[in-house]
Design brief:
Layout: E1 5-13, E2 16-21, E3 24-30, H1 32-42, E4 47-51, H2 63-72, E5 77-80, H3 86-94, E6 99-102, H4 104-108, H5 111-120, E7 125-133, E8 141-145, E9 150-155, H6 156-166, E10 170-175, H7 187-194, E11 201-204, H8 210-218, E12 224-227, H9 229-232, H10 238-247
Length: about 250
C-alpha cells in the first residue's frame, strides 16, 4: 500500500490565510509564507494553496504570493483559485507550483482538463470538487462552483468519473457540509468517489481529531487527508498526526 499523505491547506484571501465553517465566517489564521514554510519543515507531505476569492472576483490567482510560498517550501505544492485557461496553468507552474487545481473553469469547460493533461501531464491536473449533500436524495451530492457560492445539478460521483476520463490525475474532494466543523470528514462521500475512480482522492472538510484522519483513510478510502483548522490553530502537529496513523497501521512517510 502506498503511503498516505498529510496535506495542510492554505485558504488565502487578501494575502492572508483564513478559515471558516461551511465556507463562511472566515477568521484570520496567519501569513501564507510563514505557515507554508512551517508545514514544510514539520514534514507535511504536500501543501495546497487556494486563492478562495479569485473566481468570485473574476481574477487570476495571486502569482507573486505563489512565488513567495514556493520559494520557502520544499514539498510538492498545489495551487488553485481563479485558474481558467492553459495560460494560467503555465504561469502558475512556472511560478513554482507542481500541480494546479481547477473547479469552476473545469465545470464550465471540461475540455480544459484534457488540454492541461495533454500539455503538462495528468500528474499536474487536480480537479477540485466542492460537494454539498442533496436534501432530496440520500447518498447523492451535487457539485458547487465559485468557491461554493453557486450550486449546480451536477452529480459529484458522475463528475469525478468523467474528469478522470478527461485527464484529471487527482481529485481534491471537499465536503461543504463538513468543512470547518471539526466533526469529521463525510466518509460516505469519500467512499462513493473513491470507489468510482482509479485516481487518488484527497479527503477535505471536517478534520477535528486524529481519529478523523484515520477514518477518512480507512472508512473513506482516501489516498490523502487535507486539513486546515486543526493545524492552523495548533491543535495538532504534523508529527503527531503521522505518529498516530503509523501506530494504527496506516503507512505514512515519517
Amino acid at each position: 500500500m502506498l503511503a498516505k499523505r498529510i496535506i495542510p491547506c492554505l485558504d488565502v484571501k487578501d494575502n492572508r490565510v483564513v478559515k471558516g465553517i461551511n465556507f463562511l465566517n472566515l477568521r484570520d489564521a496567519g501569513d501564507p509564507v510563514e505557515l507554508g514554510a512551517g508545514y514544510s519543515d514539520q514534514g507535511a507531505d504536500e501543501l495546497v494553496f487556494l486563492d478562495i476569492t479569485a473566481t468570485i472576483r473574476s481574477r487570476k490567482t495571486i502569482v507573486e504570493l505563489v512565488q513567495r510560498v514556493a520559494e520557502n517550501v520544499f514539498i510538492p505544492f498545489t495551487v488553485g483559485g481563479g485558474v481558467q485557461t492553459i495560460e494560467h496553468f503555465d504561469q502558475l507552474l512556472r511560478s513554482g507550483a507542481e500541480k494546479i487545481s481547477v473547479n469552476t473553469a473545469a465545470v464550465k469547460n471540461p475540455q480544459l482538463l484534457s488540454e492541461a493533461a495533454k500539455r503538462f501531464g495528468n500528474q499536474c491536473v487536480v480537479l477540485a470538487i466542492d460537494a454539498r449533500r442533496s436534501i432530496k436524495i440520500n447518498n447523492k451530492w451535487n457539485v458547487c462552483i465559485k468557491a461554493g457560492s453557486e450550486p449546480t445539478d451536477i452529480d459529484v460521483v458522475e463528475w469525478a468519473k468523467k474528469a478522470e476520463q478527461l485527464g484529471a490525475g487527482e481529485i481534491l474532494l471537499t465536503s461543504m457540509d463538513a468543512d470547518g466543523t471539526k466533526e469529521g470528514y463525510d466518509n460516505e462521500l469519500n467512499r462513493a468517489v473513491t470507489d468510482a475512480v482509479n485516481i487518488p482522492v484527497i479527503a477535505s472538510g471536517g478534520a477535528g481529531t486524529l481519529e478523523h484522519l484515520y477514518d477518512a483513510i480507512v472508512k473513506g478510502n482516501a489516498d490523502a487527508v487535507l486539513m486546515a483548522s486543526i493545524t492552523h490553530f495548533q491543535n495538532y502537529t504534523i508529527k503527531q498526526m503521522k505518529k498516530y496513523l503509523k501506530e494504527r497501521g496506516v503507512p505514512v512517510n515519517l
